[in-house]
Amino acid sequence: MRQESLVTKYDYDFENDSIFFYGSNKKYRSSIDLDGIILDIGEDDQIMAIEILDASNRFNLAKEDLRNIKYFEARIEVSEENIRLTMKMSVNKRNKLVDKGLDALGLNSINLPISTQGIELNC
How far is CA 55 from the centre of its chain? Predict the structure, then answer.
């Protein structure tokens, strides 16, 4: 089953170097931490937000660049055992778009149902 969600906002916490993509009106159920990438899950078992800790190091960008995100997308593949997250992001750096990617893999420790989900944000 494939589900698409459109996140409507992002916040970058410069001091703590974390990005939070959100915007869903779903009710929160729980979170799962994929080694510093936190997925918030709604009552419908769909991903409703993503927080990326230590973001500048993970994306190999200056912290200032993370204030200029122009596009973000994430694909979340849930199996019985694992959750695989693939992210792509474009930032405006010196009037030029720079594309970055990041992958994460973790255990499906909260028994989410098997699914493929997508999240997208255009700024």
Answer: 11
10 Å Cβ neighbour count for 7? 21
Q: How far is CA 121 from CA 9, 12, 67, 70, in A?
A: 7, 14, 14, 8
The pTM is what?
0.91
Q: Domain range holding 93?
A: 2-122
Mean pLDDT in order along the chain per 10 residues (123 residues)? 69 97 86 95 91 97 95 95 97 94 96 92 86
The residues, ordered by sequence, that sit 6+ positions from 34 with a Cβ below 8 Å of its Cβ are 83, 85, 104, 105, 106
The angle formed by the CA atoms of residues 54, 100 and 114, to the nearest 5 degrees, is: 80
Strands (E), 1-123: 2-6, 9-13, 18-22, 28-33, 37-42, 47-53, 69-78, 82-93, 96-107, 115-122
Count of structural domains, the chain: 1
